[in-house]
Amino acid sequence: TSARKRRYDIAVIAGDGIGLEVVPAALRCLELVALRHEFTLDLTEYPWGSAYFQAHGAMMPTTGLDELAKHDAIFLGAVGVPEIPDVETLWGLLIPIRRTFDQYINLRPVRTLPGIPARVVGAGDVDLVIVRENVEGEYSAVGGRIYVGEPHEAAMQEAVFTRRGVARAARFAAELATTRSNRLTSATKSNGIVHTMPFWDEVVADTLAGYPGVSVDKVLIDALAAKLVLDPAGFDVIVASNLFGDILSDLAGAIAGSIGVAPSGNLNPEKKHPSMFEPVHGSAPDIAGQGVANPVGQLWAGAMMLEHLGEPAAAADLTAAFEACLADGLRTRDLGGTASTAEFTDGVAARLTA
Ligand code: ATP
Ligand code: MG
To answer: Which residue numbers delimit the Isopropylmalate dehydrogenase-like domain (predicted)?
Structure first.
């Protein structure tokens, strides 16, 4: 047999809870699809997350980021357990990874899958992508409190938007729009937030001037949230700031179906640093260890990773395999079915070896 020439170094962080169940499930399918498309995935597993935190007082070792930097991509399950505050998982692992590797785009495709009707009656077939700016904006650490404990105590937090930061998010969204329907919606709030949001609008408009084929619709975030609920099929690519994108992603995901199927990519589009792919859901402590977690979100995240690595045919194959299982009525409990994680994964694996 010919040597598999294309190889990709993948850092795997299964994390906690159902991450420990859906990550191995997805890896099994990823390896099968790699075999089929004749490339190699070199997997290195890192046992970081809450167990590591309980033993060492940190989510990952101090050399963690240097370790991850050596890889082509990071495949993440879910981190966090109820006993550890979310702020530790966020600032101890997720945010340092996003910022160090300049993963300035958070990409969240939202699509109705076969056999999973949208939650909104009459929503039609939803097929949209949310492009969230992922490293600046409202999630800044600039601010603080004054007059602590006094009746006039106050807290302030600055949002920081840079021309470069907004422009590169807008550019990514515009490029994506050209591969889809050339329609872009930009989330704003320039009527109420008078400094940063007019700046966002201005830089988006300047950037989009370079894409005469792409139409851009500027919509206030409140109206956009309402429209998204009423007519999700009316959207294609949505570009939004860090906070607005965060909120819209969960909203759109909820409309399209189950939290267990939604994926996301934290991208460094230039591939100077590894990008990170993960399901949208958390560690789901309520069902962890029962073998019933839906592996679709993790599988779809795997497909996004393959796409990013430059293996679109393999990505399409993997996507088609889990979609076919869903279309056949193979469903985990969260989708009203009875299949276990292993049974669903067996179904996907069978399609990838057929
Ligand atoms: P986060 O960890 O992001 O703060 P969370 O703890 O609020 O999120 P999740 O861990 O995503 O939320 O769980 C929310 C609910 O969705 C739980 O009831 C969980 O069982 C369910 N759920 C999440 N992911 C899956 C999955 N892959 N399969 C089945 N059910 C899931
Ligand atoms: Mg959680």
So the answer is: 9-348
